Amino acid sequence: MPKKVQPMAALDVKRLTCATGKDGKPYNTLHAVGGVSGLLLQVTPSGAKSWILRTLVGGKRRPIGLGGYPDVSLADARKKAQEVKEKIAQGIDPVEERKAARQALMTARLSSLTFSDAMTQYIAMKSKEFKNPRQAQQWTNSLSTYALPHVGKVPVSDIQLPHIKAVLDPIWESTTETAKRVQGRLEKILGWAAIHGYRSAENPARWKGYLDEVYPSPSKITKKKHHEALGLEDIPEFMKSLKKRTGTASRALEFLILTSSRTNEVIGDKRIGKHGITWQEIDFNKRVWTVPAARMKSGKIHRVPLTDSAIDLLEQMQPGAPEKMVFPGPNGAIPSNNFLSALLKRMETPVTTHGFRSTFKDWAREKTAYADEVSELALAHVNSDATHAAYARSELIDKRRLLMNDWEYFCYHGEAESDGDNVVNIGGGR
User: Fold this and answer.
1) Fold entry, domain 232-413
2) DSSP characters for 179-211?
3) By Cβ atoms counted within 10 A, which residue in 118, 124, 159, 415 is the most buried?
């Protein structure tokens, strides 16, 4: 039984201090204040004071905190201590009751997280690993347009299939590619919410084994949209016309076609401040252009063998410092995003710059005997066992040089002539 002591007055409690040991160091000291058996005031060497009730719970002595002093006065501490003792007498464990209350409060807080807030937190977290800074904005834009009007204010813990259908039903068949992106993003955000304890139910945005039983497969209803490409038979005439034009954009487009490169690899991307090809990337002796990994879609360094025409074109450009761009915009800035597309429009050629890569691939498959991995490597498509193996064999740089030389000839002269019935088989036999 706790020792009964004479009840202290409020002024007496205010004067209590911690004790000092034989070594002269102060230590945490417990003072019985009376009024309720087991009620103590703890005083620390720093001067902080708090209330503790020492009592039996289920036959075991338990210290129960009642709050800090002076926020909890002496009178309030005695009242709290008495209430705790009454609960114990009724068979209620006040410590476990308090834990349950805290858990309920935490659960309520977690379950109140809205989809809008979850989306913001998830995108902020994932943006650190996005290769392209624009990806975060793309996620935000698509979800803000299609998802937030339906589920933005809904707690993630409450989102079920009807909510997901409200988002996807209007767009699944009309804009399937966009709908699939939105579905994938919903799935990831709700999955993140489950991992962090914000929801416990099944993920209603999951595709495999769930939504694939609700919607038709995107591959069955989507007509794949290809970049507009110039027909093979039109390439020589187009290149002649392009060759006659002056200006940086004309030379950049010609270089892009001769190397079968992507637009941002040649002129950069002004939207994210990424520059294009610089003079330090060109090795005129080895006749190779080395594209840094940061500018490649694959995230890997890409070496491009340069043909005679590509070298001549570079030598005609105004040379600059190693870090300067070969094809700059006005005042040496990164060219605008429509730098090349505007040129194609002026030439009245309804194609995209990316479409020239498709034309190159068609030519390599239909007009040459080169192995497919050679042209795949020329396009920096590292997406098959064959091309992965080719990278291990020095990227097939010598074969790609032959391929690009043949492509250069085709661009300016069309198909090589044949004698009579003898078919000229470009590549492979070299």
Assistant:
1) hpI Integrase; Chain A (1.10.443)
2) HHHHHHHHHHHHHHHHHTTS--S--TT-TTTTG
3) 159
